[in-house]
């Protein structure tokens, strides 16, 4: 079944089609929400709400205008932005820290690498929401700049400016940190 | 000729992979990297950041799928036409208990209006109403009512 056929079935109220759509998109949607919200509880709530919106607004998806994943990410993005606005802060947790890949390094190098990743992770949390979203969509979710701009409902220029600022501040942080370590 | 500022902007926006750079600038950028130590240093630093970013993995949520799949889904309301029909003729609730008997009670009235309109029962509606009423008013004005006053 294609995504279009699945969504037509969802429009008719077919729950098994809904389950199939959930299976296809749950991972990327929950990961995106987590990268914006930073904690498990809010991520699960927002992901659940995003799929509820998919169920109730299935007829509004236009396959000629956007891919299903783009539409779903847009729903999730809007929910996350609304949530952050209402709560005016992001409650983060250390879940990222448990998921750092370090197998390719020796012990000393691994420690150094883990420390850098943690530092970078902290820096990402401090980025403004639009820069964090732009980074998550373009770097982690694999969207093109045009698609990411459509998801965030901003111009491609604004998206490119946000992602450039995010990458610049992260690069400066890593470079400064490396320079300081070398001096010591 | 591309400047280091412009090249930095391209790398920050599109990444370090030359295949991701804008097609019209790709050749110029590649030549710039080959000739500029600053450009190569920038690419090296940015690659470091991207490698570190790749190591930040979002966790999986093992119970989330069952939570999302098993959540209570509202009944689909259907098309706008269905919604209007449901509003006019509700399937349930108070509307069903009050509205439907009211609609049924109105049926004889509606039937009467339709029948009355269809069979005029001797009233000729085909006449030109305005002319007819004009004549009637003229005739009324010509009547002598004086005898009624005494």
TrEMBL record, chain A:
Domain RNA polymerase sigma-70 region, chain residue ranges per copy: 22-89
GO aspect biological process, one term: DNA-templated transcription initiation
Magnesium recorded as keyword: no
Keywords carried by this UniProt record: DNA-binding, Sigma factor, Transcription, Transcription regulation
Domain RNA polymerase sigma factor 70 region 4 type positions: 120-170
Gene Ontology molecular function: any one: sigma factor activity
Keyword Transcription regulation (UniProt): yes
Cross-referenced NCBIfam families: sigma70-ECF
Membership in a protein family: Belongs to the sigma-70 factor family. ECF subfamily.
Name the record gives this protein: RNA polymerase
Lineage of producing organism: Bacteria, Pseudomonadati, Pseudomonadota, Gammaproteobacteria, SAR86 cluster
UniProtKB/TrEMBL annotation, chain B:
Keywords linked to the UniProt accession: Membrane, Transmembrane, Transmembrane helix
Transmembrane segments: 98-119
Protein name: Uncharacterized protein
